[in-house]
Amino acid sequence: AMRRDFVANVSHEIRTPLTVLSGFVETLQSIPLPEAERQRYLDLMAVQASRMQSLVADLLTLSQLEGSLPPGMSEKVALQELMSQVASEAQALSAVLSGHEGDQKTCAHHLVLESVPAWVLLGVRSELYSAISNLVSNAVRYTPAGGTIRVAWSRDAEQVILSVRDTGPGIAPEHLPRLSERFYRVDRSRSRETGGTGLGLAITKHVAQRHGGELRIESQVGQGSNFMLVLPTSRLVLQAD
Ligand code: ADP
């Protein structure tokens, strides 16, 4: 039944942009339009095409996660380098979403990356990157401009924790247990407007579990959310060498 639902969901997610896209193609083929109008249609078509591209990219990521062996302990991932890539992409996304892309790259959020420790994680870099960047980009996408996003690493005896805290709308408790299901969305229109696929948290949870950890979510409506990627300290090397 899960497989059937998944196939139905994927088909639906692909059919929606495809329907819009082929509608525009038909219009362009049959009606001569003024240049400005034509350009507008092409722009809308590009949005739908990139929506399908993101969806296919996330589906491939999920299927790779399902089809590969659990991450070993031989690949070393330097946190500082990983986090600086995540942060610069989050800044760019914040600027694009607020319409300030181009020359003046204005970040519309207060993005606070607390000093990243010189730690090395033993795991798969590409997976950890997807997991973390999904959490940070969600915080940017769901937090209105002017809000604060605070990213911090910490650890105790058992766990290494990445916390991504935002001052966005927050999430009601009844949604929390379902949030990492594939295609489960609380705010459907916000997800669509900001290029969501509905698969980001499913990917993050999968990556966390494959590395022996978990995805933890705390949120309060009106207060914001805290998404935590929790990994076992067995995957931590304290000093970069
Ligand atoms: P999407 O591509 O729709 O963002 P995700 O799997 O990443 O899919 O997230 C699932 C849903 O969880 C989102 O549609 C959104 O409703 C909710 N969500 C995720 N992150 C946040 C956040 N930081 N603040 C509020 N809601 C969030």
In short:
The chain contains six helices and eight strands; from the N terminus they run ααβαββαββααβββ. The protein is an alpha+beta fold and 241 residues long.
Q: β content, as a range?
A: 15-25%
Give the end-to-end Cα distance, rounded to a whole number of Å: 48 Å
User: Measured on Cα atoms, how large is the radius of gyration?
Assistant: 20 Å
Oligomeric assembly: single chain
Features:
8 strands; binds adenosine-5'-diphosphate; 6 helices; five-stranded mixed beta sheet; 241 residues; alpha+beta; single chain
Q: How is this structure best described in words?
A:
The structure is a single chain. The radius of gyration is 20 Å and the shape is globular. With 241 residues, the chain is of the alpha+beta class. It has six helices and eight strands; from the N terminus they run H-H-E-H-E-E-H-E-E-H-H-E-E-E. Bound molecules: adenosine-5'-diphosphate. Adenosine-5'-diphosphate (ADP) is lined by residues 134, 138-139, 142, 166, 168-169, 171, 179, 185-187, 191, 196-202, 225. Adenosine-5'-diphosphate binds at residues 134, 138-139, 142, 166, 168-169, 171, 179, 185-187, 191, 196-202, 225.
